[in-house]
Amino acid sequence: MIECKNIGYSYTDYALNKKELFKDLSFSIAKDEKVLLLGVNGCGKSTLLKLLNALITPSSGQYLFEGEQVDKSYLKSHAKTFRKRVVLGMQDPSTMLFNPTVYDEIAFGLRHFGFESVDERVHHYASLFGVEKILKESPLKLSGGQKQKVLLASLLCLEPEVLLLDEPTAHLDPLTTGWLVEFLEELKVTSLIATHNLSLGRELATRAIVLGEGEGIIYDGGVDTLLDDTETLLKAKLLHRHKHTHNGVEHSHYHMHSWN
Ligand SMILES: Nc1ncnc2c1ncn2[C@@H]1O[C@H](COP(=O)(O)OP(=O)(O)OP(=O)(O)O)[C@@H](O)[C@H]1O
Ligand SMILES: [Mg+2]
């Protein structure tokens, strides 16, 4: 469904120096496959998700969606259907909320894409995500977790085929996190989810792609295999050594970066 062939991304920094964030990323994601996107801060996960949502274009290589190259000419004729089929929930939900009320926020995409029974759908997804009591509030005044729920409701109500999520559980309380993980587990949708929360890894996906820092993809394989492989986890900096003292004796052990 999704194919990246030698994708690279460079940008010009504040001093006009060209910086290469990554190059030669090649991977495919099959229909209904669920994949985790992992890697340290700044390695390019959010940038890659924006590339896959065609919000930015790669500096090199090709991005294909169902075998067709997603470039300017493709988007000229397919932008609307592409954005309905492939949705991205950005890392900071505030950047995606712009409507006067939560109701309008969820209804926006439904109206834009010409869905029927908009009111019914808004109420259905609002109640699913537990935001039905705040439909008249301004999304900008909500808590971080509430914003995340509104954003997810506004994306999932479109019944997308590809779900790109950037740290979807970052602002959620443990109960809502558990609910969302179960919800995503049952959802039949191709997904790529960036997260630092490895404890959710096995439930969110079957496969993991780990981006290194300027090294391209350093792991692409089963989530179970990755989580059981201390060496790759250490190399990917997904595990760190923690030192502490008990009764005057210093111990050290490994910790995964999964805080919630
Ligand atoms: N157009 C740009 N201009 C300046 N810097 C950029 C641009 N695009 C990407 N970067 C830089 O590339 C790096 C990668 O950012 P990105 O947000 O993709 O990382 P990330 O893996 O999602 O990190 P995190 O885990 O912190 O969310 C950052 O240092 C970012 O500032
Ligand atoms: Mg990010």
Structure, described:
The protein is an alpha/beta fold and 260 residues long. The protein has a single domain (2-256), classed as 3-Layer(aba) Sandwich (Rossmann fold). Helices cover 33% and strands 30% of the residues. It is built from nine helices and twelve strands. The strands form three sheets. Strands 6-7-8-3-9-10 form a six-stranded mixed beta sheet, sandwiched between helices. Strand 1 and strand 2 (18-29) form a beta hairpin. It is globular and about 65 Å long. The mean pLDDT is 91. It binds adenosine-5'-triphosphate (ATP) and magnesium ion. Adenosine-5'-triphosphate binds at residues 11, 13, 21, 39, 41-47, 91.
SSE diagram, text form:
Elements: E1 2-12, E2 18-29, E3 34-38, H1 45-52, E4 60-65, E5 68-69, H2 72-85, E6 86-89, H3 102-112, H4 118-128, H5 144-156, E7 162-166, H6 174-186, E8 190-194, H7 201-204, E9 207-211, E10 217-222, H8 223-227, H9 230-235, E11 239-246, E12 249-256
Parallel strand pairs: 3-8, 3-9, 6-7, 7-8
Antiparallel strand pairs: 1-2, 1-4, 4-5, 9-10, 11-12
Main attributes?
260 residues; alpha/beta; Rossmann fold; six-stranded mixed sheet; four-stranded antiparallel sheet; 9 helices; 12 strands; globular; binds adenosine-5'-triphosphate; binds magnesium ion
Q: So what's the overall shape? A: globular
Number of domains: 1
Number of strands: 12
Query: What is the H/E order?
Result: EEEHEEHEHHHEHEHEEHHEE
Helix and strand composition category: alpha/beta
The proportion of residues forming helix, as a percent range, comes to 25-40%
Provide a count of the helices.
9
Mean pLDDT: 91
Bound molecules: adenosine-5'-triphosphate, magnesium ion
Can you list the strand order of the major beta sheet? 6-7-8-3-9-10
CATH class: Alpha Beta
Which range does the strand content fall in?
A: 25-35%
CATH topology category name? Rossmann fold
| Main sheet properties | 6 strands, mixed
